[in-house]
Amino acid sequence: HRHLLGIAGLQPHELLFLLDEAEQWIDMNRAASKHDGRLEGLTQINAFFENSTRTLLSFEIAGKRLGADVVNMAAATSSLKKGETLIDTAVTLNAMRADVIVIRHAASGAVGLIADKVDCPVLNAGDGRHEHPTQALLDALTIRRRRGSIAGQIVAICGDILHSRVARSNILALTSLAAQVRVIAPPTLMPPAIEELGVTTFTDFDKGLEGADVVMMLRLQNERMSGGFIPSTREFHALYGLTAERLKRAAPDALVMHPGPMNRGVEITSEVADMPGRSAITEQVEMGVAVRMACLDILTRRARKVEGWA
Ligand code: CP
User: Fold this and answer.
1) pLDDT number for residue 129
2) Where does the Aspartate/ornithine carbamoyltransferase Asp/Orn-binding domain lie (predicted)?
3) Residue 106, ligand 1, Cβ within 6 A
4) Residue 55, marked binder
5) 82 labelled as ligand-binding?
6) For labeling, which of 26, 149, 300, 305 is most exposed (least CB within 10 Å)?
7) Mean pLDDT, the chain, integer
8) Residue nearest atom 4 in ligand 1 by C-alpha distance
9) Ligand 1 midpoint to CA 261 (Å)
10) In this predicted structure, what is the pLDDT of residue 221?
């Protein structure tokens, strides 16, 4: 694989290889000195055409810890505002001889489009409602470390599934690694034919939570609902908000996850989000840096003439 555009198309052994490679960075990231240097001399461009806190910063930190020269293209102040097309922007980045480009875009498929126009590896940092592969990898790594394995775990993914690239990439990764995935959403936010991906669907939150080992909450993606049905946050919280009382329906030691950004008091209460021993939300962020270091390392191996990616 030259690029990382999605979880779709990756084999289970490739997903496990990425997780194993990420493990090696966790200890270094916890040490006082956090420098490796294997990407020395390479230029990494982060082109984010949509807002981000976690993904942008962790890709920047990951690249810097590996020694790359990291440049962030701020879409808000770029020439996109002057009418430049996405393809012309991609060709421009390519002409600057980037060695790896990390892209987030609001349109599904936009990252794949850019990948076809450039000579270097492209990493998808989230495209529309399509995929967010590094998020799924960091979630899988968090589950594996906290639960001991992924296979056999009952993972309930809850909330706005319809607009969520996080849900889609997680469904693909977790089913591929033999977890039992449940999808819980109101009928209006449930994608049609989602069962074809090998998940069980629930519109009743309480039933879907029953015995779950991992409860992954998602926010309402209001920015992708223009013109459509937007649920009231009060009603959504009443029916689909994770409270401490509701969490009792899950397994006694169930892990609580959220990719962020959270809307406290809507899809999750602060009591649950901050619950000691149960919430893995900050650990997810920590795993994000390790996973992104692994992805940057692996995808630049061909250019660096290093063995080790399928
Ligand atoms: N989880 C996630 O993608 O967060 P950001 O939008 O802050 O990058």
Assistant:
1) 94
2) 153-297
3) no
4) yes
5) yes
6) 305
7) 94
8) 54
9) 6
10) 85
Minimal-distance CA residue to ligand 1 atom 6: 52
Closest CA to 49 of 102, 99, 4: 102
The yes-or-no verdict on residue 286 having pLDDT over 90 is yes
Taking CA atoms only, the protein residue closest to ligand 1 atom 1 is 259
Q: Is the peptide bond before 261 cis (omega within 30 degrees of 0)?
A: yes
Asked whether the beta carbons of 240 and 266 are under 8 A apart, the reply is no
30 is in an annotated binding site: no
17: tokens are: 């290889």
pLDDT at 75: 76
Measured CA to CA, the distance from residue 44 to residue 57 in angstroms comes to 13
Q: Which two tokens stand for residue 207?
A: 């039933």
SS (H, E, C) 170-222: HHHHHHHCCCEEEEECCHHHCCCCHHHHCCEEECCHHHHHCCCCEEEECCCCH
Residue 48: half-sphere exposure toward Cβ, Cα within 13 Å: 17
Find out whether the beta carbon of 260 lies less than 6 Å from any atom of ligand 1: yes
State which H helix or E strand residue 157 sits in: strand 154-158
